[in-house]
Amino acid sequence: MDTDTSTQTDDNAAPPPPPQPQPQPSTTTPKRLARGATRPGDRIFLALTRGSGILLLLVMAAIALFLSYRASLAISDDHGNFLTTFEWDTRGTEPRFGIAVLAVGTVVSAVIAMALAVPVAVAIALFLTHYAPRRLRGPIAYVIDLLAAVPSIVYGLWGALILVPHMNGLFGWLDDYLGWTGIFSWDEGAPRAMLTVGILLAIMILPIITNVSREVFRQVPRMHEEAALALGATRWEVVRLAVLPFGRSGVISASMLGLGRALGETMAVATVLSPDFDLHASLLDPGGGTFAQNIAAKFSEADVFGRDALIASGLVLFVITLLVNGAARLIIARRKEYSGAAA
Amino acid sequence: MAKRIDVSGLTAYYGTHKAIDDISMTIEPRSVTAFIGPSGCGKSTFLRTLNRMHEVTPGGRVEGKVLLDDEDLYGPGVDPVSVRREVGMVFQRPNPFPTMSIFDNVAAGLRLNGMRRKSELDDIVEKSLRGANLWNEVKDRLNRPGSGLSGGQQQRLCIARAIAVEPDVLLMDEPCSALDPISTLAVEDLIGELKERFTIVIVTHNMQQAARVSDRTAFFNLAAVGQPGRLVEIDDTERIFSNPSVQATEDYISGRFG
């Protein structure tokens, strides 16, 4: 403000030019519009937030650089093809390792989990918001929250000790009726297979998808539901006309959160699956692997080069997750005009 | 199509709270009946009992009779869903389905009724949009989202959606209170045209509007805050606004309270 006074004194010094622009308060300098960052609180807050933002970017960049560097060391020494080799041997003088099996296993288990979990989660969320008696809504939501709080190793133990032994019936049934497709043929091996993993992952991601979907469905404007009701819509038709379209992008986001967890889940997969490095046409064959499971299984006994190779596989998982998220954003953005956000 | 509404001894509750008490009236077909009265007097609640929308509010409950011609809307075994297909409704804030195109909005009710044939839908959608004086403004963009229209256009879209299913009665809950004067005028003109075909009931806070559009006017009032709303009188609009038979009506209309 000091600099301002000088210009002001100039104004006053000029002997009364008849039309004074504004009647000036006698004691203070004329008010100027306050400029940002002049108040100490604002300055400190700005510095803090900006600093945190920059720090985050730096950390991310450092991680990315470190990982890419270590990964590139491993990949450049890979005597197999990093993308297509069905092997993970990092110890010999001619290491051969490839991510094909891991990529397929990760995607397949996550797809199974999504296919099972999303419809059930959406149904639970709709039940909680539109069908359940008011008194039941709280308790059921609470139980679902509890499911989300169970550590993944507990899921893994439950999966290995209880789920796996109980899968024989389902596997036999699938083999009987759908075995001809090849995807569901079963040679009576232990059911430590991708389907079991997918089912376990589905249970694990159910709570997050349910909770986020429920939040979205709860926010459907009353007036959209009344619009449908007034047209003579039944309860299901209200859901179809007003609730689901409004919640679509929210359900996609919720599913992406679940998918992220399914792609990255480690312990539960590691305890249930009996891994190998082959591609299996049948979801009921024991074997295969996922990125996270492979890293968990091999990391502790790997040498430096072996760890670099695992880091390289982790980078691929990261890229896959990125692509999936990007695709989801694209879907949401394409529907934005119709999303109801404007209404 | 247009039917007479005969209400007798209608009382509505929200939980234990009695919102309107013992209302009886007759609403003539092919006419516009306006409900006026201070806030909280139950005129919107009463309107919503006429298509059984009151009971979708948690705790909402109704006693009494509403005859549509000779059929009791609250008779045993009457499905509220089928009632709402006969008695259409337009709300205070325009509420087109935001995820649907203009065409699909108008066709929504028809599709609920099982109409699938494209040519049939095309015809009725055009007829309804013409009926709502909206056709010329939207005929080139029927596939665009309804939420992209102006507020007044959206409200006329909602009217088109409501009349597409050819209801017997059209209920309007303050249909112009979220609109600018020009859009209000458009909707009022439309109401004048629609009364040739439908029985129209309109709740309004705007007494000039009631005087402009309605044939009959009902004045609702409540004894005190927290008390149930009552029907004070219903009469020809002209008489209500010039020489009402109850003092309270005159006080309200001349702005002495409320």
Automatic annotation (TrEMBL), chain B:
Protein name (database record): Phosphate ABC transporter ATP-binding protein PstB
Organism (species): Streptomyces thermocoprophilus
GO molecular function, one term: ATP binding
Name of encoding gene: pstB
ABC transporter domain location: 5-247
Record-linked Pfam families: ABC_tran
InterPro entries according to UniProt: AAA+_ATPase (IPR003593), ABC_transporter-like_ATP-bd (IPR003439), ABC_transporter-like_CS (IPR017871), P-loop_NTPase (IPR027417), PstB-like (IPR005670)
The entry's keywords: ATP-binding, Nucleotide-binding, Translocase, Transport
